[in-house]
Design goal:
By secondary structure, the protein is an all-alpha fold. The protein has helices at about 1-15, 20-35, 40-80, 95-110.
Length: about 110
């Protein structure tokens, strides 16, 4: 059950970084204008603006993260001694990545 929730939340986060999320926001705002124009006051406009800014930030963050991942993947491919399984770790759930990092820290401490 927890794995399904984690997977859903990760996928939802990925979806909010797509152009479709902006389409959903625009459709929501247009439907609000059509069906309940009376309640569309400054507070409602501020709410929509906040949602839009959140999506802009999420999109920029996703772009930066993907660029960093691509660069790291290239470095792992270029370095002969690198562990190649790390090139695919970004496809794991955040909890699994954290566990992997903790495991590597324990190994580093044990070796030093």
């Amino acid at each position: 059950m927890m794995d399904a929730i984690r997977s859903f939340l990760t996928r939802l986060g990925e979806l909010t970084a797509t152009p479709a999320a902006f389409g959903v926001l625009i459709a929501y705002f247009c439907l609000w204008l059509i069906f309940d124009r009376a309640s569309l006051d400054w507070h409602a406009v501020a709410t929509c603006a906040t949602l839009a800014m959140t999506l802009f930030i999420k999109r920029a963050e996703h772009r930066d993260t993907q660029a960093i991942q691509a660069k790291l993947d290239e470095l792992l491919r270029a370095h002969g001694e690198a562990k190649t399984e790390l090139a695919q770790i970004d496809r794991e759930e955040p909890e699994e990545i954290e566990e992997h990092r903790k495991k590597m820290e324990r190994e580093d401490r044990r070796m030093s």
